[in-house]
Amino acid sequence: MExxxxxxxxxxxxxxxxxxxAGLFAADALAQAGARVVIYEHKASPARKFLxxxxxxxxITHSEAIERFISRYGAAATRLAPxxxxxxxxxxxxFCAELGETxxxxxxGRVFPASFKASPLLRAWLGRLSRLGVAxxxxxAFMGFSESGxxxxxxxxxxxxxxxxxxxxxxxGGASWPxxxxxxxxxxxxxxxxxxxxxxxxxxxxxxxxxxxxxxxDFEGQPVKTVLLRHGDAxxxxxxxxxxxxxxxxxxxxxxxRMREAAAKDGATTLAIDLRPDTSLECLARKxxxxxxxxxxxxxxxxxxxxxxxxxxxxEARRDGLPRDSEALAALIKNAPLTVVGVAxxxxxxxxxxxxxxxxxxxxxxLKKLPGVFVAGEMLDYDAPTGGYLLQAAFAxxxxxxxxxxxxxxxxxxGGGEAQPGADQAGLSPRHLPYSRAPEASNKYxx
Length: 447
Hints:
Elements: E1 13-17, H1 21-32, E2 36-41, H2 48-53, E3 61-62, H3 66-71, H4 77-86, H5 89-98, E4 103-105, E5 110-113, H6 119-131, E6 135-138, E7 141-145, E8 151-154, E9 160-163, E10 167-170, H7 186-191, E11 197-203, E12 207-208, H8 213-219, E13 223-231, E14 234-243, E15 246-248, H9 250-266, E16 269-274, H10 281-288, H11 297-303, H12 308-317, H13 326-334, E17 336-340, E18 342-343, E19 351-356, E20 373-375, H14 389-408, E21 436-437
Parallel strand pairs: 1-2, 1-10, 2-6, 10-20
Antiparallel strand pairs: 3-5, 4-5, 6-21, 7-8, 8-9, 11-19, 12-15, 12-18, 13-14, 13-16, 14-15, 16-17
Helix pairs in contact: 1-6, 1-14, 4-14, 10-13
Keywords: FAD, Flavoprotein
Region (Disordered): 417-447
Protein name: TIGR03862 family flavoprotein
């Protein structure tokens, strides 16, 4: 079915597809530049994955030096650098403060809102967008483009909507946690337009390990504190958790892309765990040398300060039995090898690797093959670690795409602050668009 006509207005009409952080920020920039903006979201409410991220304490960005920060994006660092420099971590913290959410730096250098939650920030942000005249049309799925180049959408009643837009920002996310909205279906639709998309793969995901039945039964869900993980020449330190199918936690996620590639190539790969990263091999061997002859491994290690789950991990790494020699046992504790057969799939991954190649977009993130169509957020081909880098890139590229679309349309550059009360905002009222509504202050997915 055809959507009801949009009212005539001098301001250009822009559509943003996806109501996650990148899409919301692109819409924010476009509205401030004077465009009429509608955000199309195929779920029933906006920013579901953003809200999910806030369940464990929303890590909004990181406080480390900017060049070190940018280096975290690995192969994509050079391409993302201009966008991060244009919208650095401090700018994101200032934006949160404008929305009434002060932030603080944790002991790890990570930055969190004072509430630790995503929902207060989202409520304030949706209110800001409403004041800017932005509408959100939920239950609208992106279906690609018509033969004439118009935007195709699938409406909530199952009918097709064809909409001509002056500029389009695609912010559909990757393919991780698809039940929250990012299913990666856009990749085939862009591929059909000749846009090169690097295959989507799980990133920041758990390591898959074939535990013995007794270990899985006894220790599923148990944390292991302050370990050092090694994979080849890479290492990551922090807390991990034993899962039914392997290991999860920040250090695991940091190495997951390497493990994914190695396991895909060779069928399996080795992840080494140092259970006592702050104790040298020599000191540990001396401590373990004072062992009664008849004392069992389990009793001896427990009295030496090792938890049951740590002892279990050592047994999984050395299934033919733990060594009695103190130096050999110390070496195992410092370098316990576990066989990783892969990483958790997209349905459980925190983020997605792959996406639209940077060679396909210009400096404003406009697709070279589709003038007037811009791409932002996790749709782009970068693989960022956890720690605030994912959200920072989503905000920064969302802003870049929004400002790029404004420049494409000849609008004034989007500013950094909210429009002043009483300013003339040429927004699109929900009554002019079927199935649309103004952004709501809360929804049932709020935390």
